[in-house]
UniProtKB/TrEMBL annotation:
Residues 54-203 form the Heterokaryon incompatibility domain. InterPro entries: HET, HetReg/Transcr_Mod. This is Heterokaryon incompatibility domain-containing protein. Pfam families: HET (PF06985), Het-6_barrel (PF26639).
Length: 695
């Protein structure tokens, strides 16, 4: 909800309202083309039945139309005027209906009134008998949505077909050229600004009933959700959501709301975490960045609502975002929230917004736009972290794996403190090591769009000194341990993208076979040559000379493949990939060569590899002492890899300034140091506790 330029005193708004009362509106069309209306104050608990309206304000320009009251008149926003016109003419509505429409029922020029109404907004939408979502006229400028609502009704009726024998026939029919106009119309509808605004999320979730209007055509919330799932089912098996059917950006905005509503309504869920929904809505927009937090308070757990406190618009965005970190720590005794500065930071954008409006590096900057909204965007979003939360499917609630880098004892030694101006924070931890080399992400098409990374030449290229490795003729003494550590790192040691289960050992063998096939395609049976992923082959080509101590990745793979020592292979689990020379199991994953590694149903090494490298933009790293792991793409050799005692995930930090201070770069995966192993280093005197000043 945005502020309006009305005068603070307006006689139309006579009678103050507070956190227990609100105004309702009756309106009708006047003889002169405008509207006449009545505004009346009610106690929220004793209000009559009313409709609420959900719409977009647009550029906050006014249509020229007004609503005339006895005490004066109110201008009507340009984006709202067609909705009022439709309601006045539609047979579903009557002149004596009560309505709650924020831009008319609240004096937004009065800051205190605005804050008081924001506090009860969730209750207003819950109490409405129905919320009417206005998506605009069928034709609005270049956006042509004619027939879109009817097509969505058709799609929702098809959902049972996708679980039956005629599913492939239905997909073929829907993808045929004669359906292109329908998909174009639906795409235009889902691209309407309403789906991008942060406030409209809870406006869609909270009411008992919601109906979407485009022109005079309408569809219920339940049917829209079903239609979105039909679109998903129609797209399963191909990567064509953004090519043949609905552009990916528009599809995600609508489909993710379906997932949020499932979590909101699920009686078995523990509620929605504030941090999870802030991250999941990173592809939404807000005129006031503080509303990124306030707009979802009606959806989150009571515990998270309490730590935010009452909405207020007097302090700066930077202060409020930093205060959120402090409040989160005070409530949960965890700094896992700062992991989100990995994604939500000024350096993640295509252009530098400048230092003037920047938040400290340890504060997630929720203003940053993320092109892709992931249900599990970070390791801190692991399914085990209920205080962070994620948006995994409801059928995947169980989990058996948990990252806990400091371990239980060290959590109690975190010694966290915040400066009173919230520009610095302190936390105890351990410096594990410094980064030595970083792998390439060339040809991986990572989602990173950072202006910092864009300056690399080559983009996301291999980062290590130019000195050639000199292993002599010595083979690594334990190549299986090396290849195992590399494979675990590439999948963050997790079987699934929701980070619920430890990666199975056969991922190691699968990785070895795929790498071997990059060196010699004959390793795979001829019938399976077409299944070799060309993007992975390109990744291997760019990383074949990445050094792990004195040995390169290529050398390690060749050492294992060329070995005649049977005991070497006995230590490898059977792979799921068939190799003519390395395995006797005949089963290539994915079994369907067209299977989408982005699908909810794909758990295999390649799907996990791409989730880590492409979707999360992580690159292999080695440290000075030979530790192997994954680092943010923005990491650089010389950065420190640390375990902060208040965080479950290790970090890459960068030393800055004359006085020792540290800048947060992002999460790190360090193989062998994800579950309290650092405590052993302290007890043996190999490492000491370090006080980190984060800026």
């Amino acid at each position: 909800m945005d502020a309006a330029p009305n005068a603070k005193y307006n006689p139309v708004y006579s009678g103050a309202i507070d956190g227990t009362s609100f105004r309702l509106l009756r309106f009708s069309k006047s003889q002169h083309g405008g509207f006449t209306g009545l505004l009346k104050k009610f106690e929220l608990a004793r209000a009559p039945r009313f409709y609420s309206a959900s719409y977009t304000w647009g550029t906050k320009t006014y249509s020229g139309a007004t609503i005339k009251f006895k005490a004066g008149e109110l201008p009507v926003l340009q984006g709202l005027q067609p909705f009022l016109q439709m309601v006045s003419e539609h047979g579903d509505f009557y002149d004596d209906d009560w309505w709650w429409i924020d831009s008319l029922c609240i004096n937004l020029a009065d800051g205190k009134e605005r804050e008081s109404q924001v506090r009860i907004m969730a209750d207003i939408y819950r109490r409405a008998k129905r919320t009417m979502v206005w998506l605009g006229e069928e034709v609005d400028g270049n956006s042509d949505c004619r027939g879109a609502i009817q097509f969505l009704h058709y799609l929702q009726d098809l959902q049972p077909v996708f679980s039956g024998l005629r599913a492939d026939l239905a997909r073929t029919s829907l993808r045929s050229p004669y359906m292109a106009a329908h998909w174009s119309s639906a795409s235009s509808l889902l691209a309407r600004p309403w789906f991008k605004r942060v406030w409209t999320v809870q406006e869609m979730m909270l009411p008992g009933e919601v109906k979407f209007y485009c022109g005079k055509d309408s569809i219920s919330r339940g049917k829209l959700k079903t239609a979105m799932y039909s679109i998903f089912l129609c797209s399963i098996g191909d990567r064509d959501i953004d090519v043949e059917l609905i552009p990916r950006k528009s599809f995600d905005l609508a489909f993710n709301r379906r997932r949020i509503h499932q979590w909101h309504m699920n009686p078995k869920s523990h509620g929605i975490s504030l941090v999870a929904i802030l991250a999941y809505m990173g592809n939404h927009s807000a005129s006031d960045p503080r509303d990124r937090v306030y707009s979802v308070l009606g959806l989150v757990t009571e515990r998270d609502r309490q730590l935010v406190g009452n909405p207020e618009y007097q302090t700066s965005v930077q202060h409020q975002y930093a205060k959120l970190v402090r409040s989160f720590y005070n409530e949960y005794r965890s700094l896992d929230v700062i992991c989100f500065s990995h994604t939500f930071n000024r350096y993640a954008e295509t252009e530098d917004p400048g230092i003037e409006s920047a938040v400290p590096s340890w504060v997630p900057d929720w203003r940053v736009y993320t092109k892709y909204a992931s249900p599990v965007p970070l390791m801190a979003s692991q399914s085990a972290n209920e205080h962070i939360g994620n948006f995994r499917p409801l059928h995947g609630q169980d989990w058996k794996a948990k990252y806990d880098a400091p371990g239980g004892r060290l959590h109690g030694l975190a010694n966290v403190r915040f400066h009173e101006d919230l520009k610095e924070a302190w936390c105890d931890g351990v410096i594990l090591d410094t980064i030595d080399t970083l792998g390439a992400l060339e040809s991986c098409h990572p989602r990173c769009e950072s202006f910092v990374c864009a300056q690399e030449r080559p983009l996301h290229g291999l980062l290590q000194d130019s000195m050639d490795p000199d292993p002599g003729h010595r083979a690594p003494s334990n190549p299986i341990a090396l290849i195992s550590s590399i494979a675990r790192s590439l999948v963050l040691d997790r079987q699934d993208k929701y980070l619920r289960f430890v990666a199975p050992d056969y991922y190691i063998s699968d990785f070895l076979i795929i790498c071997s096939a990059c060196l010699d395609p004959e390793i795979l049976p001829e019938a399976l040559h077409h299944t070799m992923d060309p993007d992975f082959a390109a990744w291997f080509h760019h990383n074949r000379h990445l050094r792990f101590g004195p040995w390169t990745l290529e050398h390690i793979v060749k050492t294992i493949v060329s070995s005649t020592d049977p005991s070497l292979y006995e230590s490898l689990p059977p792979p799921t990939l068939h190799s003519t020379s390395l395995s006797h199991r005949v089963n290539m994953v994915p079994p369907d060569s067209h299977a989408d590694v982005n699908s909810d149903y794909a758990d295999n090494f390649l799907s996990r590899f791409w989730d880590t490298s492409r979707k999360k933009s992580r690159r292999l790293m080695t440290t000075k002492e030979g530790h192997i792991g994954m680092a943010p793409c923005r990491a650089r050799p010389g950065d420190a890899v640390v375990v902060l005692f208040a965080c479950s995930i290790p970090f890459v930090l960068r030393r800055v300034g004359a006085r020792e201070a540290w800048q947060v770069i992002g999460e790190a995966y360090v193989d062998g140091f994800m579950n309290g192993e650092v405590d052993r280093l302290l007890k043996r005197g190999i490492r000491s506790i370090h006080r980190f000043r984060l800026v």
